[in-house]
Predict the 3D structure of the following.
Amino acid sequence: MWSPIQPYRGRQAAMVQFEPAQRDLAPLPWSLEARMRASIFYRIAAVLLLLLDVGHTSGFPWSDPKWGVDLGSMQSTHFYVMGFSRTYWDFYVGFGLFVSVFVLLAAVLAWQLGGLPPESLALMRGTAWAFALCFAAITVLNFKYFFVIPIVLSIAITLCLTAAAWLSGKQVSASPSR
């Protein structure tokens, strides 16, 4: 009598051997690995940084009369610093615009990093991680001093920059050596 466990009488069971897939094959174009490139995360971060910059700059003078802040005293209290007469308002506006310029620079840098080939990104791993850590610190500062919109944007930017820094190292180590 025949059983699925026992081979047919008089025949030997065939041995089938499977070999593991080679890792150097290019990923399928629709696979998650092919879509999750460092450049995509850098480009997303660049767009988010531009949104943060536009929001920050358009919020000038970063104060609302409804808040009850006495801007008059900030504008009228003069003091001398290294030969220049300045007010607290000058510092407030100056540092606000200073931040706008640096966030714009960060957007340009993220966009430029997104255009680099994986081999170049591997050489800039230190820069990529410094960029991600900088925005992690900015996220902490946003939690401490600001409100929900910059907090959410800085979290998203930090996650994108961290993913990009992580993937930029993995893409080169996974590519076949020459």
The helical segments are 32-35, 38-58, 71-76, 88-114, 118-123, 125-145, 148-174. The CA atoms of residues 21 and 27 lie 12 Å apart. The chain is about 65% helix and 5% strand.
